[in-house]
Amino acid sequence: MSRIGRMPVTLPQGVSVNIEGQRVFVKGPKGELTHQVRPEIAVKLEGQQLLVSRSTDERAHRAYHGLTRALLANMVKGVSEGFRKVMQVEGVGYRAAMQGTALVLQLGYSHPIEVVPPPGVSFSVEKGEKVFAIQGINKELVGEIAAKIRSFRKPEPYKGKGVLYQGERVRRKAGKAGKVGG
Q: 59, 49, 61, 70: which is closest to 5 by C-alpha?
């Protein structure tokens, strides 16, 4: 049996779950999320715990078992605590600023890049103009937006300039060593 799949998902105070057929609705203080569960996976609520089980031991069903449990655990954490990705910009003239709810990035291009947050996601700029955060209740959406913003100017290995996740280390290269000989 799947080690991840058989672990129950404990519901914190203030989070409620409603199961209607194959749809699971999770509601908490930060918002509401829904997930369509595959037909070979069963979800049931027992007290303050969600239990996930599968119909057979087929390879695909075992994979969906752990996946479904992980997705439901992320939904519960999202509506109770929320998710947050902190990113930083490195480079001369690189900066981030807020313009209303949109994030405006100066990344060395001839124009600023404006990122409008989708519903359920918000931005905030911290520590001057070099660090910004992405918050939301949907872990997948927060990670997708962070990856999209990082793709605007990936960190390069020679000077370390670009958009990085906070704590990310850029493996630096030496560059040209200079002309040898004459």
A: 70
